[in-house]
Amino acid sequence: MLDIKFIRENPDIVKIAINNKNEKSNIDKLLELDELKRTKQFEYDNLRSEQNKVSKQIGKLKKEKKDASEILSQMKEIANKVKDLSTEISYLGDQLLALILRVPNIPDSDVPIGKDESLNEFYRESGVKKKFTFALKDQTQLLEINKLVDFKRGVKIAGSNFPIFVGKGALLERALINFMLDFHITKHNYSEMKVPFIVNRKTMTGTGQLPKLENDMYHIEQEDLFLIPTAEVPVTNFFADEILLEKDLPYKFTSYTPSFRREAGSYGKDTKGLQRLHQFNKVEMVRFVKPEDSDTALMEMIQEAGDILEALGLHYRVVKLCTGDTSFASAKTYDLEVWAPGTNRYLEVSSVSNFRDFQARRASIRFRDHNGKVQFVHTLNGSGLATPRTFIALIEQYQNEDGSITIPEILRPYLQGLEKISI
RNA sequence: GGAGAGUUGCCGGAGUGGUUGAACGGGACGGUCUCGAAAACCGUUGUGGAUUUACGUCCACCCAGGGUUCGAAUCCCUGACUCUCCGCCA
Questions:
Q1: How far apart are the first and last CA of chain A?
Q2: Which of A84-98, A254-268, A308-322 comes out lowest in average pLDDT?
Q3: Gap from A304 CA to B49 C1', in Å?
Q4: Distance in angstroms, CA of A208 to C1' of B82?
Q5: Is A351 a catalytic residue?
Q6: pTM to 2 decimal places
């Protein structure tokens, strides 16, 4: 959420940002409502002030057993006005909130302006494309040869894009999760959090998924709860409605959760194999930092996500997202894309974002600085990493001519020493 | 699922329809004392909004939303959540 004062004073900046982000938001209407509400609020405050004063006098008169009936009848009128105004103000307030919750965050000035992913900027790459001397197989072939995933039975028991990891596939997936968690805890000094996979509406609004993306969420109607699309949601809301101490910042949390996404409207696009799933596992990193530290934190987190890929010996690249590809709540986002040689494509395995105070404002996460002043924290998060696509890259980059897969050394302790997956 | 209790500030915990933004206790912070510390004593200790150059003034907030009233933390209604016991179950 943006500061209403900021919108009021910089409507053009906000409008440009909305446009660059391909969002829709009626700022003029919002400002009109804001103005009207403030006028009414002013009237209300004055009337209440009057009412409070006179009520105190009435109290005194009654104590002294004097007659107050004349003032009482006058006050009746004010009381009615106050009631009407208060109804009106709360109605305006609701409308205003509904609008402001749909205003996206403003991209940083160094974010390239562009409509879609084709205008993302190459940032850096790591490692080299392995040279293969044989005909490569892609993920679907490798998964099948080694019997790592059962797609058909997944369809039977849940639906398409709900694969079942079986045997060594399940083992390798679990190994990746545990490896990543351990890595962030021991090498990057994160503290682990195990959170609910189902959250309420307020929580989902706090990080910015709602109201905009309601259609992309799995919703449990009976309780009005949502399946989380990422650990970011419960972990970031951990401190909702709290005022933190400056000395405790930064907080760094890592959390493994499944992620549930309806992927409404994306049918048929990149849905082969493990690329786009309704449920997938992910290890997430979340930080709460002082405003002046968030730029550095973002850079560190990109490297931390990259460290995982480097430890696994996987070639990847980093791109800086353009405005149109940067998500609703984010001010700046970098994606890590890992190389999948089977199809010679780069797959997004991590998205690292600085939200600045946008989420903190929505969820009301603040800290008291050394001057005693209360400020919003900055929040950041990044995948570290999503497992299915890491899985794809791993089996494709580590495939052998016979279709078997060599396990990277660093991962072997997590697979009871297994060196190779083969039939 | 059944029965009951509760929700007040950083925490614990009072609260009569009328100077209660809220007693009291604890914590935290500042000060006095001390070589230093503890103890003791003194003081400070909410958030958001409007207005003002500023001092300040005003408004709102005691789970949420309604209602009664000139006036609500206090009375009434609805809802959410928490806890306890029973039932069921990993």
A1: 53
A2: A254-268
A3: 42
A4: 27
A5: yes
A6: 0.94
